[in-house]
């Protein structure tokens, strides 16, 4: 594992629990690993609009300067996904869903003919599989319940583009008192230690 793409989506920045768990994880990786960081709070992506999609659909040689600049958002992100040997995401739960800034990134990663294709048997992901580590942090307890819309969405999205090796690390009940928060963070830290060693092997 040479390059790890780190995606932070907490609006709390470095104070966000998902971001702090990411930092604990990367601290356990070999020093030779290079980190490619995307901080969606510090540099949020705009929501996807039709003119950007039109830029994608225009042949590269025919794009205007404005279209070339718009297409570059998606092209650069997809290239970073391709170049990474593993991807780490911090995903806090906001109103039962993923942060909107993370959805804006996903909207630029899912590109027909580039990261997936349609076939007679259904869509097929085109990215080479690699580990995806997801730090899911929540104020309440949702894992395994119908209120957890994040997990099936993330599973489906990454499977859709070809990334099926997914590792979820949950930290739940963070707003349910100090003892509950400490217990779930301790459990997450144990999982971090085991998984970082596994992926570095």
UniProtKB/TrEMBL annotation:
Name of a matching Pfam family: Flavodoxin_2
All residue ranges annotated as the Flavodoxin-like fold domain in the record: 2-194
Reactions listed under catalytic activity: 2 a quinone + NADH + H(+) = 2 a 1,4-benzosemiquinone + NAD(+); N,N-dimethyl-1,4-phenylenediamine + anthranilate + 2 NAD(+) = 2-(4-dimethylaminophenyl)diazenylbenzoate + 2 NADH + 2 H(+)
Family assignment from sequence similarity: Belongs to the azoreductase type 1 family.
Cofactor: FMN
EC number(s) reported in the record: 1.6.5.-, 1.7.1.17
Binding, FMN: 10, 93-96, 137-140
Subunit structure, as described in the record: Homodimer.
UniProt protein name: FMN dependent NADH:quinone oxidoreductase
The protein's enzyme class: oxidoreductase
Family matches, as InterPro entries: Flavodoxin_fold, Flavoprotein-like_sf, FMN-dep_NADH:Q_OxRdtase_AzoR1, NADH:quinone_OxRdtase_FMN_depd
Co-factor binding comment: Binds 1 FMN per subunit.
The entry's keywords: Flavoprotein, FMN, NAD, Oxidoreductase
Protein role: Also exhibits azoreductase activity. Catalyzes the reductive cleavage of the azo bond in aromatic azo compounds to the corresponding amines. Quinone reductase that provides resistance to thiol-specific stress caused by electrophilic quinones.
């Amino acid at each position: 594992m040479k390059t790890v793409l780190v995606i932070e989506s907490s609006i709390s920045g470095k104070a966000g629990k998902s971001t702090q768990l990411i930092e604990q994880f990367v601290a356990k990786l070999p020093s030779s690993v290079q980190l490619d960081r995307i901080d969606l709070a510090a540099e949020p992506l705009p929501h996807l609009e039709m003119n950007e999609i039109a830029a994608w659909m225009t042949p590269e040689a025919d794009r205007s300067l404005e279209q070339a600049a718009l297409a570059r958002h998606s092209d650069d992100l997809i290239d970073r996904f391709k170049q990474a040997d593993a991807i780490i995401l911090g995903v806090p739960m906001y109103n039962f869903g993923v942060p909107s800034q993370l959805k804006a990134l996903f909207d630029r990663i899912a590109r027909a003919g580039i990261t997936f294709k349609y076939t007679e048997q259904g869509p097929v992901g085109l990215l080479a599989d690699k580990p995806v580590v997801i730090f899911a942090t929540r104020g309440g307890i949702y894992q395994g319940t119908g209120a957890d819309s994040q997990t099936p969405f993330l599973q489906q999205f990454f499977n859709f583009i070809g990334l099926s090796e997914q590792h979820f690390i949950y930290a739940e009940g963070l707003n349910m008192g100090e003892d509950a928060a400490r217990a779930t963070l301790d459990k997450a830290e144990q999982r971090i230690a085991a998984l970082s060693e596994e992926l570095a092997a």
